[in-house]
Amino acid sequence: MKSCLCIVNKNEIEQFISQIFDHPQGEKDILKHAIKGENLYGIKMTENLVRDKLDEKSMSLVHQILDKQREHVDYLKSELP
Fold first, then answer.
1. One-character DSSP codes across 25-38
2. Which residues of 2-22 are buried (b: 16+ CB within 10 A; e: fewer)?
3. pTM as predicted
């Protein structure tokens, strides 16, 4: 039987617990969660995953997509009451 040693940092554990217990209550909370999710999981994670791993053409395409995501985040922020 093989064993696996998983290393998880404190931030990942806090995020996991937050996802379980921190449910949005109203429109403002839903927008805040959407903004956080798109920033953290959509933009920042993608930037980290592709950094120094793609050719110039592919990286340009990724940047175009991320720019659209940033526009979406800005729109969501503008909708906050």
1. -SHHHHHHHHHHHI
2. eeeeeeeeeeeeeeeeeeeee
3. 0.64
Q: How far, in Å, CA of 40 to CA of 4, rounded?
A: 27
Residue 54, C-beta contacts closer than 8 angstroms, at least 6 positions apart:
62
> How far is the C-alpha of 50 from the C-alpha of 7, rounded, in Å?
22
User: pLDDT per residue over 17-64, tens digit each?
Assistant: 666 566 667 888 888 888 998 998 889 999 999 999 999 999 999 999
DSSP state of 53: T
Tens digits of residue pLDDT in 23-35: 667 888 888 888 9
